[in-house]
């Protein structure tokens, strides 16, 4: 229903837009957050650069991929190697805390409001920051869940214990307070006190690139390999918890349609715009007292049809939150 003409805000306009956004949030009865990967990137969960090299330099050297995401699609020759890679990936992006307190600041911004969160992120950052789990709908799965790869049944399984065993079997240490950090897996040591959740590699240890066969997860019902509960194809399991969250979100929308609402879109792009972006545009257009607010470093835009009801800020989400609290 919307045209292809976009209304974008330049960086020079950001200051005024942030002031407007703060006012709209303060005035709102309801905040509906839609978040994508850009929010976690702002919090420091980057999948490239030093963070990738620190934990995956051995896989990078052997296979040539340059980021975690690409490595996740690599056709490893064995399940033992597949889960060696994925257990590191899952642990640092699900069970370690984000380097920057962006989610915590977002929670402080909305905690006194009637809020709900719709997210395509799978890293559990909202719950770790204090958001009520009954006000969250993770549409695309969770790094912290296994499912049958077939799937032979519609259930998911918490994987923290299994993931911890996998990374420890490779030589990594979890939560030990050692004064050690590395830019690569076993080079260039720097003194830094690690946190209780930090994944570290003791000095002089070269990590294994395969886990023991007995740690490879298999379905408890059919014995086939387990997989991550991540939406990639029609094998994705939407378990009871997923459907309950979907129903709570739908009911929240129904009950709040006539309230003063801010649709706060954070870090979403155009990979899956039908989940958050397009729906937020449509609801902003049709709801009488709604504002569409978009914060995105590279893609802050809105259709001309809702221009007068939109606030678009092309800046880092964490920086914008800082400025809101400073005003």
UniProtKB/TrEMBL annotation:
Origin superkingdom: Bacteria
Keywords: Metal-binding, NAD, Zinc
Limits of the Deacetylase sirtuin-type domain: 11-327
Residues that hold Zn(2+) according to the record: 148, 152, 219, 222
Record InterPro entries: DHS-like_NAD/FAD-binding_dom, NAD-dep_sirtuin_deacylases, Ssirtuin_cat_dom
Presence of keyword Nucleus: no
Molecular function in Gene Ontology: histone deacetylase activity, NAD-dependent; metal ion binding; NAD+ binding
Key word Repeat present: no
Protein name: Deacetylase sirtuin-type domain-containing protein
Originating organism: Anaerobutyricum hallii DSM 3353
């Amino acid at each position: 229903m919307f045209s292809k003409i976009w209304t974008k805000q330049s960086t020079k306009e950001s200051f005024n837009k942030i002031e407007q956004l703060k006012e709209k949030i303060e005035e709102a009865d309801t905040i509906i957050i839609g978040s994508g990967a850009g929010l976690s990137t702002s919090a420091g969960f980057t999948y490239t650069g030093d963070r990738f090299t620190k934990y995956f330099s051995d896989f990078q050297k052997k296979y040539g991929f340059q980021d975690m995401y690409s490595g996740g699609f690599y056709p490893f020759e064995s399940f033992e190697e597949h889960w060696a890679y994925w257990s590191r990936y899952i642990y640092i992006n699900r069970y370690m805390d984000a380097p920057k307190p962006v989610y915590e600041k977002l929670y402080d911004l909305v905690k006194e409001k009637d809020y709900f969160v719709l997210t395509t992120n799978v890293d559990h950052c909202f719950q770790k920051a204090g958001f009520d789990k009954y006000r969250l709908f993770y549409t695309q799965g969770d790094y912290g869940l296994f499912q049958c790869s077939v799937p032979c049944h519609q259930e998911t399984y918490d994987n923290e214990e299994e993931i911890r065993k996998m990374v420890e079997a490779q030589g990594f240490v979890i939560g030990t307070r050692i004064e050690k950090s590395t830019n690569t897996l076993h080079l260039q040591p720097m003194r830094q006190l690690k946190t209780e959740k930090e994944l570290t590699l003791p000095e002089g240890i070269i990590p294994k690139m395969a886990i023991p066969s007995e740690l490879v997860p298999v379905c408890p019902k059919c014995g086939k390999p387990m997989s991550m509960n991540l939406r990639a194809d029609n094998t994705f399991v939407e378990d009871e918890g997923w459907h309950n969250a979907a129903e709570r979100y739908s009911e929240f929308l129904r009950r709040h349609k006539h309230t003063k609402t801010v649709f706060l879109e954070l870090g979403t792009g155009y990979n899956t715009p039908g989940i958050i972006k397009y729906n937020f545009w449509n609801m902003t257009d049709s709801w009488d007292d709604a504002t569409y607010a978009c914060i995105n470093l590279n893609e802050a835009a809105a259709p001309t049809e809702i221009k007068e009801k939109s606030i678009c800020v092309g800046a880092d989400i964490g920086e914008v939150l800082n400025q809101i609290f400073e005003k």
